[in-house]
C-alpha cells in the first residue's frame, strides 16, 4: 500500500485476533507499530511473535485516564501517532432476558465508551497534524443477531460515531470503520462449538469465516494513501453474509 512506510500506528486490542493480525500487516508495510491491550499474557506473546513492535502497552480502554496515559506513552515511543485502529472489544453470548445490568454496562464500557475515549484522545492529537482513525464495527451493527443484544447495540453505536466523527474532523482527519462478519478469532472459538461454526459456514455464500489477516488488509488499505478520498464510510468484509440477510435465519 502506498504511504504506509514509517507511518506511526497505534492498535487497541492489538495483542490477539484481528488486532494482532493488523499489527503484523502494518509492520510488513514498513509502519512503526504500537499495540495496546489489557491482557498481560497476550502482550508478552505478541512481543515474542512480533519483536519489531515499538511497544505493547497496558490499558483498559474503558478507563479514560489509562487511555490518555497509554496514548502519551505511544507518542513517546513512536514520536507521534498517525493512524489509530480502534479495535478493542468484548462480547458475551446470552439471551436478551438474561443480560444483567452489570454485563450490559461492561460491554458498553469497552465497546462504545472505550471506542469514544480512544477516538477523542487520538483526534485531539491529530487535528493539527492530520491522521486516520479506523474503528472496528461489525455486521452485528447493521443486522439483528440473536443472543448479542448488548454487543449489537454497541456496534451500531460505533457506526454512527464513525460517521459523525468523519463530518466533524474533516478535512484534517479521515475516519472509517470496518464491519467484519464472522472471523476465526480466539473470541469466536471461545463462544462457538465446532458444530455451530460449521452451521454458520453453511449460511455464508463464500462458505467460510474470514481470517483475521483479511480484515487487517482492509485496515491497511483504508490507512494508506490509496484511500485518501475515503472518509465516513463503513466497509463490510463478510463473505456475502449480509447480502441476503443469512445470519439471522
Walk me through the structure.
The chain has 249 residues and is an alpha/beta fold. It has a single domain (8-182, 215-235), classed as NAD(P)-binding Rossmann-like Domain (Rossmann fold, 3-Layer(aba) Sandwich), CATH 3.40.50.720. It has 8 helices and 7 strands, in the order E-H-E-H-E-H-E-H-E-H-E-H-H-H-E. It has helices spanning 17-28, 40-49, 64-78, 101-126, 149-169, 186-191, 194-203, 212-223; strands at 8-12, 32-36, 55-57, 83-86, 131-136, 173-180, 234-237. Helix 5 (149-169) links the parallel strand 5 and strand 6 (173-180). Helix 1 (17-28) crosses helix 8, helix 3 runs parallel beside helix 4 and helix 4 (101-126) runs parallel beside helix 5 (149-169). The termini are far apart.
SSE topology sketch:
Layout: E1 8-12, H1 17-28, E2 32-36, H2 40-49, E3 55-57, H3 64-78, E4 83-86, H4 101-126, E5 131-136, H5 149-169, E6 173-180, H6 186-191, H7 194-203, H8 212-223, E7 234-237
Parallel strand pairs: 1-2, 1-4, 2-3, 4-5, 5-6, 6-7
Helix pairs in contact: 1-8, 3-4, 4-5
Features:
Rossmann fold; 7 strands; 14% strand; globular; 249 residues; alpha/beta
Give the rounded overall mean pLDDT: 95
Helix and strand pattern:
EHEHEHEHEHEHHHE
Question: Terminal Cα separation, in Å?
Answer: 38 Å
Q: Sheet with the most strands?
A: 7 strands, parallel
User: In one word, what is the shape?
Assistant: globular
Estimate percent helicity: 40-55%
Radius of gyration: 17 Å
